[in-house]
Amino acid sequence: MAATPFAEDAPRPRPRYLPIADHGLIGDLRSVALVGTDGTIDWYCCPSFDSPSVFAAILDAERGGRYELAAAVPARTKQFYFPDTNVLITRFFTDEGVGEVQDFMPVGCDESREVSRHRLIRRVVCVRGTVPFRALIAPRFDYGAAPHALRTADGMVFFESPALSLALTSTVTVETDGRDARAEFKLTEGETAVFALDQLGARVPPRTCAHAEAEHEFNATVAYWRRWLHQSRYRGRWREMVHRSALTLKLLTYAPTGAIVAAPTTSLPEQLGGERNWDYRYVWVRDAAFAVYALLRLGFSGEAEAFMKFLTTHISPGDGAASGPLQIMYGIDGRADLPERELPHLEGHLGSAPVRVGNAAADQLQLDIYGALIDSVYLYDKWAQPISSGQWDDLCHLVDWLCEHWDQPDEGVWETRGGRKNFLYSRLMCWVAIERAIRLANHRGLPADHRRWRQARDAVYRRIMDRGWSARRGAFVQYEGADVLDASVLMMPLAKFIAPTDPKWLSTLDALTEDLVSDSLVYRYDPKVSPDGLRGDEGTFSICSFWYVEALVRAGRVDEARLAFEKMLTYANHLGLYAEEIGRTGEQQGNFPQAFTHLSLISAAFNLDRALG
Questions:
Q1: Using CB atoms within 10 A as the burial measure, which of 28, 450, 501, 600 is most buried?
Q2: Using CA atoms, how far apart are residues 241 and 469, in angstroms rounded to an integer?
Q3: Any idea where the Trehalase-like N-terminal domain is (predicted)?
Q4: How far is Cα 130 from Cα 145, in angstroms, rounded to an integer?
Q5: Smallest Cα–Cα separation from 425: which of 369, 473, 376, 466?
């Protein structure tokens, strides 16, 4: 099923906050910008994903800063991606004509090389009749906390803060008021205007952006994305949605290091008005490893190779991991220190405070990450290229440590803040880690402590079957000794721990369907019966919804799986993008877009296609 190509009509005047789903995403493999259906950029960090924001009106309509560019008269708006690219087009339908804004961030020719120039281009085109436009460029540096100076020179506008300077060039006249820049202009059919916002640095002199250069940058950016997507081997029924998910995952990669962020935003609420607001602009080992799996499925081996280099460089047991557990997340540059703090001067999206940067969950123990990590290494070796001897030595250190520590309680996959427990999912992924390492050793004839590894693998299996099963519920449960259900156990057949038609698993699947599934949407758990240390409720968790589809497929319930999958596609936004969660009335909740959701969509589509023939 294809995504609807256009957004719903956007109301005017602009509300203080657009819904999370009313945005598209552009990026240059170093950072991204969120562009609203009304043409406003209300999230942009420069020069990288985890840099302080320049525009953050999505978190505070007054203090955050924004970049408006829209028709100056009442208009209906629609938004779509230039086909097979991450170039975003927002169209304005007025009484006198039709205009559009083409938003993109040029990608360097060598994406793996750190480039010093970061450019955001907005090209305005009148395609029919006559359309008046207006622009407001109102940056607020350092999450709206740092002052800036404005000066003009040589026809350019310079915004200068203590840590970052930006230069605005335009082909139309721009006026300034000492803090912000504004423009009003009218275009007739066939005319264009160009705005370019550039980061400045010691080696990056200011430069203009004329029509010819903008045209060249547009064509080069389109060519880059189409060239990348051409590598995809997917030819199934849901090609448009799968390819949009792949393009989104690519946007979430940080080219200089090969890191993959969980999401490009911070503090978008999992519950409006609630406190479940987190910073996701980091490399979760679990999320990135799953993303590698999804991209390898489609034939994108370059991203897997880059992530393997990131692991080797920054998460090597030689850096201390052999004597202690892996950290669950890292900065995009590999740093381990990610202190969490609140920004009380920002009100949060629709008043959902606090706004947080950094993430204290980095200090949690989550044993499941070993399974995701080693499974991705196993698949990389199988589908891309053989791992090196040094990578195998690192992997052996990880498995040896896990054989000694797999039975510890931990915080679990959902990063609860209600204390450590013996979570079944953590045990399951410990089994995956050891089992995949054994497979890899056997396949390649690599040296390993086979006897110790097999004993540990079998001990984990027996522990799950003995203590993770509740006879009263007729299901595998969230943690040992509990009767609480958890959607993470949907991974049991997906990870090949249990046969998808095993009676115990089918009983578990039925129990999950009854307790946690609502119109194909799956809650990850019920916080009322399984307190997680936080106030409030949350929406359904979209990765679990796609896991559910895949579990149904593997259980032979293909018709149910296809209906559930088609229903899930209706919850995407107008561009085929998903946040982390879906609320009771179908609204997107949480950080946006979410890598977890898009990688699980790819996997579900792949396996459903295969089952349908």
A1: 600
A2: 37
A3: 19-197
A4: 40
A5: 369
Mean pLDDT estimate for the chain: 91
Query: What Å distances lie between residue 429 and 78, 144, 245, 488, CA to CA?
Result: 43, 41, 25, 11
Question: Residues 165-218: pLDDT tens digits?
Answer: 999 999 999 999 999 999 999 999 999 999 999 998 655 566 677 899 999 999
For 80, the 3-state DSSP assignment is strand
What is the distance between the alpha carbons of residues 140 and 179, in angstroms, rounded to a whole number? 10
User: Does a cis peptide bond (omega within 30 degrees of 0) precede residue 354?
Assistant: yes
Residue 204: CB atoms within 10 A of its CB come to: 16
User: What secondary structure does DSSP assign to 270-294, as a single string?
Assistant: SSTTSS---B--SEEHHHHHHHHHH
Report d(CA 189, CA 168) in Å as an integer. 25
Answer whether 413's CB lies under 8 Å from 286's CB.
yes
Helix (H/G/I), strand (E/B), else coil: 456: helix
Domains of the chain in sequence order: 23-229 (2.70.98.10), 239-612 (1.50.10.10)
Name the 3-class secondary structure at 326.
Answer: coil
Q: Give CA–CA dist 34/36, Å, rounded.
A: 7
- For helices 239-251 and 595-612, the axis angle rounded to 10 degrees is 150
Q: Which DSSP string do the residues of 472-512 spell out, in sequence order?
A: TTTEE-SBTT-----GGGGHHHHTTSS-TT-HHHHHHHHHH
Report how far apart the first and last C-alpha atoms of the chain are (Å, whole number).
Answer: 16
Taking alpha carbons only, the member of 395, 394, 369 closest to residue 287 is 369
Find out whether 474 and 412 touch, Cβ atoms under 8 Å. no
The rounded percent of the chain whose pLDDT value lies above 70 is: 92
Q: What is the DSSP string of 84-153?
A: TSS-EEEEEE-SSEEEEEEEE-PPPSSTTS--S--EEEEEEEEEEEEEEEEEEEE--HHHHTS--EEEEE
In this prediction, residue 325 carries a pLDDT of: 82
What are the Cα distances from residue 217, in Å, to 86, 102, 194, 249, 434? 13, 12, 12, 22, 48
- Helix/strand/coil percentages in the chain, nearest 5: 35, 20, 45
pTM of the model: 0.93
CA-nearest of 150, 164, 170 to 69 is 170
Say how far apart CA 73 and CA 75 lie, in whole Å.
Answer: 6
What is d(CA 82, CA 88) in angstroms, rounded to the nearest whole number?
6
Residue 529: the pLDDT is 65
* 83 has a pLDDT exceeding 70: yes
